[in-house]
Amino acid sequence: MADPNNEICPDFASAAYAEIREDLIRASGQTEAQVTNRMVVSWTQSHRQRVDDWNQEREQEEHEAAEAAQARAAQEEEVRERQEADAEKELGDFITPRPAQYAISKINNFEYTELWYFSPDGCKDAQRSSQSTAEDGYGLTQVDNAVLALRPLSAFKASKSAIPDHELTFLTFLRAKNTFLTHISKAKWPQANIDALSLFFWHLENHPIRNNSDIGDLVVLHYASRVRQDWHDRLKRDEAFNIGVLNENLIRSINDELWDKVRIYANTINTFPRSNASNHTSLS
Questions:
Q1: Crossing angle, helix 216-236 and helix 248-269, to 10 degrees?
Q2: How many Å apart are CA 228 and CA 178, to the nearest integer?
């Protein structure tokens, strides 16, 4: 669109507009001078509107350009400050264990993955796998449901050594969840989700059933395994819940379920001491 400020009002009294004037004279009954003046007024009003629109668009463009320049300057300043800060950093005394690329890809996509991958055994398994030839291969994956991207084959391959959360020892569970929380922070998960999971693990670690039942740790591991999986499934369906708040009814249900299995096993082999049956603790 050309700049309307450069427009010049046409000579509506000239011969070029004679037919238009005659049509307007017949239609309106006005004189030629009145019709000519009417044409000038109409053009002038339209011209002013075009000028106003043009000026507003230019102002908006200038405003957006200024904002973009400000954002670029702020980003460049942030990069500069980060580089200066990095230049002053020294290698720390501890390096966070690195899990398999498969697990990293899972958390980058906000998907569920077993805590075993973040355990010492899981990270050692990842280190061994990274030295294999499979680590050098690549495959296609879909990003944002549209773009195809290359990813290492290890990003698609689950470890054959992986075990579900409820089969971990409790000490391994605690060590793995610490590494897991570190990596989801690096993956830039929403802080609300990180806080909820931190609270989830804290409540489980300190739950009284661990001290009041011979199978307390096993109950906690089963609860953690089932609830965290369900939490991720529900997030995909926009049915999220606050995982940081424990469901005591579900804990009691899992406790009863596991004690039933203990009794069935004891009856099957007929060697389970009767005294242990009294350890079935109510959580009410």
A1: 130
A2: 15
